[in-house]
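Researcher: We plan to redesign the surface later, but first we want a full-length starting point. Tokens attached.
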């Protein structure tokens, strides 16, 4: 069985002082949830402070982005070796990066390649817009994002990759996908395309998350689905009690599936 995975994407929220406060509130409750991977992805400026607070826990740290080059004249960017010093994970190709910062399947591909070669597990985000969804292009869009995002990348160990299916129309809108609908895309499109690229064994091991308006009240529905291995949580990861409840729901969903 795949170990459930719950990650909080803080986006552009929290100063160092605020981050310290939130993490201190969260750690005891999150630590008490066992059997699942818990990951916090706060802004770059807070990574060092958060990593100090997470020392001695098994809660992992992730970055929200990185450049693919190791170093150089890239003002404003953060390199894979800088990320690797503090983080086990990095979110790559989030739809907000694609929509507002010009990221494409090709830059996603470079970043994924670079993360893997630095021993960082990429959380690769895919997902369709509302228009694409309404035009029934979901499958085509996701297949393209996966094939181009992972082009020329060899994966033999499924634990080195996490994928998040985040329909853009569900992000920050309060309008989550249905659990069954998300499971159909995750199993029928995402996992099957990973099987096509890397074989069944790798596909069975890769964790695939759902993201988009996951909250404490709807989390359990997602975690009971056979192909949904966890969640990438935005807004609800900024509230300690809410995020802890989501982690608890993931642990319970895992037990129910055993
Ligand atoms: P949301 O964001 O949970 O606030 O919808 C999810 C994400 O963008 O990763």
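Model: Full-length starting sequence:
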């Amino acid at each position: 069985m795949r170990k459930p995975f719950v990650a909080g994407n803080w986006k552009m929220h929290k100063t160092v002082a605020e981050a310290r406060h939130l993490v201190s509130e969260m750690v005891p409750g999150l630590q008490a949830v066992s059997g699942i991977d818990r990951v916090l992805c706060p802004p770059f400026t807070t990574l060092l402070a958060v990593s100090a607070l997470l020392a001695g826990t098994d809660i992992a740290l992730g970055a929200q982005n990185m450049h693919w080059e190791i170093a150089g004249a890239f003002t404003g960017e953060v390199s894979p070796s800088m990320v690797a010093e503090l983080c086990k994970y990095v979110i790559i190709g989030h739809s907000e990066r694609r929509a507002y910062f010009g990221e494409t399947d090709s830059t996603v591909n470079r970043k994924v390649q670079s993360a893997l070669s630095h021993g960082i597990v990429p959380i690769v985000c895919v997902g369709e817009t509302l228009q694409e969804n309404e035009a029934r292009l979901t499958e085509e869009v996701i297949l393209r994002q996966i094939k181009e995002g992972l082009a020329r990348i060899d994966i033999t160990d499924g634990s080195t990759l996490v994928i998040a299916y985040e329909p853009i129309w569900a992000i920050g809108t309060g309008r989550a996908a249905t659990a069954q609908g998300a499971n159909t895309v995750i199993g029928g499109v995402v996992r099957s395309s990973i099987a096509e690229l890397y074989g069944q064994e790798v596909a069975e091991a890769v964790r695939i998350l759902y993201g988009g308006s996951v909250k404490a009240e709807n989390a359990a529905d997602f975690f009971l689905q056979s192909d949904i291995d966890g969640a990438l949580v935005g807004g609800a990861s900024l509230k300690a009690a809410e995020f802890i409840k989501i982690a608890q729901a993931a642990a319970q969903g895992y037990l129910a599936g055993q």
